[in-house]
Design brief:
Radius of gyration: 18 Å
Number of helices: 6
CATH architecture: Orthogonal Bundle
Strand content: 5-15%
CATH superfamily: Winged helix-like DNA-binding domain superfamily/Winged helix DNA-binding domain
Shape: elongated
CATH class: Mainly Alpha
Oligomer: single chain
Length: 149
């Protein structure tokens, strides 16, 4: 089923962190990486992807960092998943690689699996990143980390 790759996971962590920052505070890759204990270099690459997708704004230089470009309630979860090549599909034949399926000519379950796949995708297609973060899970709000910038 769906298992997020590290880039997608780090993107969601960074978006979560920035969503909890006080305005107009910036969050650096170094601070976010330290908060979540994740590799700073990979996170920096992820943040650049988020910047190119215009999900975050970046400020360069000393005291620079990232901030959300728009509210997470306006960011579809699938938009973030697509940025990092996450594909929600039960079997390969439902995706772009369906030509590689050896059973495609005689397969008689592709239709039912497609119905099931669409049923799984329906709630995901309506979900925003804010919906994902709606439940508070006793995570402390990141504050006072600007000393790490």
């Amino acid at each position: 089923m769906l298992r997020l790759n590290k880039k997608t996971e780090y993107a969601l962590l960074a978006l979560r962190f920035m969503s909890r920052q006080e305005e107009p505070e910036l969050a650096s890759a170094k601070v976010i990486a330290a908060w979540y204990n994740i590799p700073e270099m990979l996170l920096a690459k992820v943040l650049q992807v988020l910047k190119r997708a215009q999900l975050v704004d970046a400020t360069k230089g000393s005291g620079g960092g990232y901030r959300l470009n728009r509210p997470l309630s306006g960011v579809p979860l699938l938009e973030v998943l697509d940025l990092f090549n996450e594909h929600v599909q039960l079997v390969d034949c439902l995706g772009e690689d369906h030509e590689e399926c050896q059973q495609i000519a005689q397969c008689d379950i592709r239709g039912p699996l497609d119905v099931l796949n669409r049923a799984i995708m329906a709630p995901l297609s309506r979900m925003t990143v804010a919906d994902l973060f709606e439940e508070e899970h006793a995570a402390p709000r990141p504050r006072g980390l600007s000393i790490y910038r």
